[in-house]
Fold:
Amino acid sequence: MKIRSEKVTNQVKIGAISLFIGALLNLTRLFPIFLNNDTFPPKTTEVLTNMTLNDGWIMSHIMGFLSTPLVIIGIWVLYDIFKKRNRNTVVRYAFVFIMVGMILYGIAVGVDGLLLPQASSVLNDSINGNYEMALMIQNNVHALALMFGSLSLIANLFGGILLGISFIRETPFRSLGFIG
Structure:
């Protein structure tokens, strides 16, 4: 029985470290952008083009992209521990929403961090050429990233609400009213 408890303890340590590092990367990922730019968020296409051509933009999005699997690992470990205590389907839905949200977040960060600088480079180089087409590509790539980011936010919000309801139902705080 001691082997099983050591395995669970190691699993909890891995999950906690993954969540902590992933959250730290997410919290600090905007610093490279702020250090290289005066204006955030970008107000014009020219400012967006200049921002995406800086190394800070790419570094920021690499940090966000690296945080995604770490948060997914941490959430999976949390789910694995929580499902042993509770067979509630609300918990399953919460973790499905969070996992989908994190996958969408990874796609948004990848599109915004990898494709948008390429589109901005094309836009920057096409002053004499096909400027309107390059501008349309840049705007569409950024809109695609914002769409995935917005869907990620919505999925993570629903997952967090469902997870919070599940936690409240299992704790001594059931007396909080309609939630418990």
Summary: Helices lie at 2-28, 31-36, 45-52, 55-85, 89-125, 131-170. The mean pLDDT is 81. The longest helix spans residues 131-170. The chain is about 85% helix and 0% strand.
